[in-house]
Amino acid sequence: MQRLIAIGYWNDGSDGCSLHNPQEFVDSRGSVALRESIFHYLQGGRSGAQYLGYSWCRFDCGIDETKMGSADLTDGVWIWPEGLAHYVACHDVRLPAEFIEHARANGFQTPTPVFEDDAVGDFDFWIEWCDSNTNGDPEAQKLWRRTQDEIDSADRAIVEKLIEKHGGLSETTCAWAGCEDLALRELAFCPSCAHNKMNYWP
Ligand SMILES: [Zn+2]
Ligand SMILES: [Zn+2]
Question: I need a labelling partner for 28 at 20 to 30 A (CA). Which of 38, 64, 140, 152 fits?
Fold first, then answer.
């Protein structure tokens, strides 16, 4: 039987539930670009199983429940609830470095998963990670920042290479909605959107 590594499942308040609450993993010091990349990766997962009801935001931020989703998404290795992207994007919830490295190794493009119908989520990794990575643990925060720094500097190197490849930036703004950076010469997008959102490599 195929086992998918579960992440992003929170305490539902039921008796004996050993899951944590997302508030314990909030860290807003990180890179916005990385957060966006993770958000897109999470959103790009394929639906594994559908639950009967919608999930709700544990931060009570007022987001419509239908936007939190009612499915589990997978990339064939990891499995997460549809609403996890919202916690990362809107509440700065951090995730295990192992998952981020996996997403990064895929260029932050969610692969189409190959998974069996009887695939099950394995919660051991997630429970153990949560137990030893809450905000009360300074080592966990250090690891999170190191992961982000590494990814940031790798991203910066790619951006520089793209600028070099295109002979500089143009004078028009990036075509990606909401982005105000200058586009690369002879391309409609800025280096960061071209790379992080469209998987364009130098
Ligand atoms: Zn929320
Ligand atoms: Zn852009």
Answer: 64
